[in-house]
Amino acid sequence: MCILLNPAKTMDTEVGLHFMDEPTNDLDVTTLAILEDYLDSFDGIVITVSHDRYFLDRIVQRIFAFEENGSLKQYEGGYTDYALRRYMEETAAETGEAKGKAGGTAGQEAADADRTGKKGKPEHVKGKKLKFTFQEQRDYETIEAEIASLEEKAERLEEETASAATDFVKLNQLTKEKEEVEALLEQKMERWMYLEDLAARIEAEN
């Protein structure tokens, strides 16, 4: 097993496999850029444990994730691909449950109609129809483009940060801006997931 602790030293050795545990922890921007560039050109296999989703998006091609039931599941792609796939699976499961509940409700409605001689929902089971608010509708229509723009900006800032390694004033400014963009991107991703879930529930209700 090869544990990558010193990228510069490792680049001088011929290895075909790297095991890395949280490799981006405590790395400055310059060292992180060196590590990522090295791994980009590395022809061997890299197995890493990391909570750094931006590092995972740039480096890995496959993710093995521990599920809630303790099983290990494989996902192709980086962290973003994994997050989207998980979200789609969870949404599909919730939609299936919603349809099952809708079927049960329809059966109850039929029984109520037989009992009361009326068609449709009895007054006591009528509810307000689920729909987007005006702001949610606007966000839903624009949020994917906003996320794509923020991802491009984060990538550009990362490149600029690596280029400004010797200019500490500019480096601090770029690092702060990059952190702000990443925080905003995370908020947008959470908002997007909420809106996608709401859209699926609205569709299931119709």
TrEMBL record:
Residues 95-124 are annotated as: Disordered. This is ABC transporter Uup C-terminal domain-containing protein. It comes from the Bacteria. Residues 131-196 form the ABC transporter Uup C-terminal domain. The lineage of its organism: Bacteria, Bacillati, Bacillota, Clostridia, Lachnospirales. The keyword Coiled coil applies. Residues 133-191 form a coiled coil. Signal peptide: none annotated. Keywords: ATP-binding, Coiled coil, Nucleotide-binding. GO terms for molecular function: ATP binding; DNA binding.
